[in-house]
Design goal:
Layout (H helix, E strand, L loop, with lengths): L2 H32 L6 H19 L4 H24 L7 H23 L14 E4 L2 E4 H23 L1 H11 L1 H6 L4 H23 L12 H12 L4 H21 L7 H13 L14
Antiparallel strand pairs: 1-2
């Protein structure tokens, strides 16, 4: 295997892994806040990708930054609406009931995508188009480097947000112990709504970064499964684990697709997911916990 090819595939895998990490973080924040898996998270990414590609970029001809900000704002509002309509009325119900409601939401969104934007795939340009960076024999797409840089900056800003800001500390408190946070006078209902908004905004960023690299279609929702697998690999509910799991999965997927066969691109996700569930269900960075009956 040529070193140049290895480096190219590694960068491509890191870029895809960063996308999966953003999706996985969306799962993680909702899980930590309310103890459910938002099964519509992948469909949120698809909606964001369509908003960017079909509406803001292709139709309205907005630049990348204004379109990104608009998508994040729309998705944040959509996330708050999801909390109010899908989660809030069922917050006293069994978690499986709430998860089924998010599954129903995902089905609704996938059909709404077809109604609003049509059944055909949509293509669009990113901020760098198809430009390539060359280092000797190594050719790397600028958009892949851009995805990695944006994700790293976002993770750094997210760290500052949760460590230095009041709302970040409040979100951490609710995630750690919602009952104790309530007793301390924290408005947990508002905090959960903000968490849904933040999770949806992350899906919006993932959709915008993904749209220029692939044709945007309803099948894009499969990134939701890969984000879920990233959570399992890293340790469900573990923020650093979600990032690690996404990067590991992205690299594995690209290498299998490039050096084995593209037919196994999605199959490797299931193989890794099942392997971790059987051999290390707590994930790489998670811890075993006991449950008393």
């Amino acid at each position: 295997m040529a070193l140049s090819v290895l480096v190219q595939q590694l960068i491509s895998g890191l870029a895809m892994g960063c996308i999966y990490s953003l999706v996985a973080l969306g799962y993680t924040f909702i899980w930590n806040a309310v103890g459910i898996v938002n099964l519509a998270q992948g469909d949120f990414v698809t909606v964001a990708a369509f908003l960017y590609a079909a509406t803001f970029s292709n139709h309205l001809k907005w630049g990348f930054v204004p379109a990104l900000i608009a998508v994040m704002a729309v998705m944040a509002l959509f996330g708050m609406g999801t909390e109010r309509v899908v989660y809030h009325p069922l917050q006293g119900a069994h978690p499986r009931t709430v998860m089924l409601s998010t599954l129903a939401l995902g089905i609704l969104l996938s059909n709404m995508d077809i109604i609003l934007w049509g059944p055909y795939p949509v293509t669009t340009r990113g901020p760098f188009g198809q430009d390539i960076i060359r280092f000797g024999d190594v050719s790397i797409m600028q958009h892949h480097v851009f995805i990695i840089v944006v994700t790293l900056v976002l993770l750094f800003l997210q760290h500052l947000f949760f460590q230095k800001t009041t709302i970040g500390k409040v979100m951490r408190a609710v995630a750690q112990d919602r009952e104790a946070a309530t007793l301390m006078g924290i408005e947990t209902g508002q905090t959960i709504a903000v968490t849904f908004a933040y999770s949806s905004a992350l899906a919006g960023i993932a959709g915008v970064l993904l749209a220029p690299a692939f044709m945007v279609s309803v099948d894009l929702g499969s990134v939701g499964l890969k984000g879920f697998a990233s959570c399992v690999i890293g340790g469900f509910g573990h923020i650093t684990g979600a990032t690690f799991g996404g990067i590991l999965l992205g690299i594995a997927e690209v290498f299998v697709s490039s050096f084995l066969s593209s037919r196994y691109r999605d199959a490797i996700v299931f193989v890794i997911l099942v392997a971790f569930l059987l051999l290390r269900p707590q994930g790489v960075l998670g811890r075993k916990v006991g449950e008393s009956l």
